[in-house]
Amino acid sequence: MTEQVKEELSAPGATAPVTEVLDTTAPATSVEQRSEPRLGERTRRRRTAKVDTILAEAKDVALAALADIAPESAMGPVHHVRGEEERLTTHLFECTLPGYRGWFWFATLSRAPRSKVATVCEIGLLPGDDALLAPAWVPWADRVLPEDHKSPEDYDGDGEGADEFEGGEHEQTQ
């Protein structure tokens, strides 16, 4: 270390600079040989949850909860059960409302440990894989092109719309 660095480190409240620690026991590798960055300790991947049998059998509880927000005629014959976590299961029912092709009514149920009673956590409507969704929102400034703006010459000669460019107000007819 240089004298200047020693003085800076010995000053009150000074901290040592952070430096990269190299592993000298590992074989030398070039930057090109390292394919992915090391981001710390590896974590275990989450297992897929098993479907709780008590919650899977509680289809009537899910249907009763969905009756609060949807008529029975809006639910189709397709029924799926999806395990979310331990003692947490989602029931999915096909939505038959016009305009909602590919959507599913859902009711998420849970239960306490060693309990046989299913409790409703959440209900609602979710899009499926083939659901019709609205396109992503685009700000007005990005949607409107310069050629979309009209000038007074673009209006036909009947005078309709010309007063918009003269600063006048439209006369309301009653």
UniProtKB/TrEMBL annotation:
TM stretches of this protein: none
Family matches, as InterPro entries: DUF3027 (IPR021391)
Biased composition range(s): Basic and acidic residues: 33-42, 144-153
Region ranges (Disordered): 1-46, 143-174
Pfam assignment, any one: DUF3027
Acidic residues composition-biased segments: 154-166
Stated name of the protein: DUF3027 domain-containing protein
